[in-house]
Amino acid sequence: MKIKFSFKFCLFVTLILIIYNHYFNLKLLQFSCPWPSENGKKVLVIADTHITFVWKFNLDRIVRHWEMKNNFEKIVKIYNPDKIYILGDIFDAGLYFEAQHYRYMMNEFNYIFGSTKIIKIAGNHDIGYHDDKYTLNRHLFNRNFGSMDVHIDIYNESSILSLNSMSLKFDECNFCKRSMNKIKSFSRKIQKDHLNRPVVLMHFPLYRTSERDCNVYKPFWITEEIHHIPNNDILSKKSSEFLLQQINPQILITGHMHFHCEIKRTYFNDILTEVNIPSFSFRMNYRAGFALITLDKIPQYSVCELPTEYIFFSIYVFIFFMWFSKLFIYFKCKCM
User: Fold this and answer.
1) What was the pLDDT predicted at 297?
2) Can you tell me the distance from the alpha carbon of 112 to that of 93, in angstroms, rounded to the nearest whole number?
3) Residue 11 burial (C-beta neighbours within 10 Å; 0-12, 13-18, 19+)
4) pLDDT confidence of residue 132
5) CA dist., res. 270 & res. 237, Å (int)
6) Domains in the chain and their CATH numbers?
7) Shortest CA distance to 97 belongs to which of 136, 56, 148?
8) Starting at the edge strand that comes first in sequence, how are the strands of the sheet with 199-202 ordered?
9) Cβ-proximal residues to 52 (8 Å cutoff; 6+ apart), any chain
10) What is the radius of gyration, based on Cα positions, of the chain?
């Protein structure tokens, strides 16, 4: 019986597919989703990695963490950003961690992100909601990540303000008062130094009553009638108005929702673009992604979608069946 394709052909196809899967699959992003501008400071933003805590063997955890590690390494190499931010929910259950859990989870974090310098913003899964009394977890998060409730990065006349969403509630708590005072101080600096309207990064979106204003693709499970709980899913109306009044940002990038959503708002006769970026983990959204920001006179952004994991694994399934068929035919012919 004639063998329809040779071992050399199988090896060639296997090599090409593996190279595509591990290099060109993400390399093509550079062309389909480039930096929004070649000028200015370049910033990479990811959100909602939800690194999971499991003592025992768990295949899903291993695969998801490896996916994030592989995607992050390739993206950093391809785009070479000047700054990197994570918009909270770094851990899936960080609010319940004790000190020994944090040591284990920091190893997982370092496995995924290595020694890359990243500015980390707290999410509700990291330290709990505002009213939760997980003071130890706030301390552990800040101690391990050197995180601040308010972080300011200024580049020429442009700036990025990153905020801890849980510290933006109008009450008498100490860390809320500190955040409010820093925001007011930054507002005065904007006026004094004639800075452009800034970019704001945080975990929770601004106050909104529904998803009907999202003008991009939403996953099938998201309906326009979904109701958000202020201070749990979104900022309260009062906190949102305070932030807009003090800062009046051009672009506001948030996470928490796990899917891509863009809303145009008008405030002080200026246009604000609010962007929810998708989760960086395929466990939280089958259309995972990240954002690119260029800080110049006019800041610009792009939201990029990662190549779907279904294509990645389908290629290996194809390789398996190709070799299975080849070996089956080979041994069948040998036996005849």
Assistant:
1) 83
2) 17
3) exposed
4) 62
5) 19
6) 29-306 (3.60.21.10)
7) 136
8) 150-155, 158-163, 199-202, 251-254, 270-276, 261-267
9) 58, 61, 64, 65, 91, 92, 93, 283
10) 23
> What is this structure's pTM?
0.89
DSSP letter assigned to residue 272: E
How far is it, in rounded angstroms, from Cα 293 to Cα 275?
12
Task: Give the pLDDT band of residue 71 (cuts 50, 70, 90).
Answer: very high
Question: Residue 23 has what DSSP assignment?
Answer: I
Q: What's the token pair of residue 209?
A: 């009553």
- The count of other CB atoms within 10 Å of the CB of residue 183 is 21
Q: Which of the pair, 70 or 321, is modelled with greater confidence? A: 70
Which residues, in sequence order, are CB contacts of 116 under 8 Å at separation 6+? 72, 76, 84
> Measuring CA to CA, which residue among 252, 249, 250, 220 is closest to residue 47?
252
128: left (phi over 0), alpha (psi -120 to 50) or beta: left
Hey, what amino acid is at 4? K
* Residue whose C-alpha is closest to residue 187's, from 252, 249, 247: 247
Range list of β-strands (E), 103-220? 119-121, 150-155, 158-163, 199-202
Q: What is the three-class DSSP state of 320?
A: helix
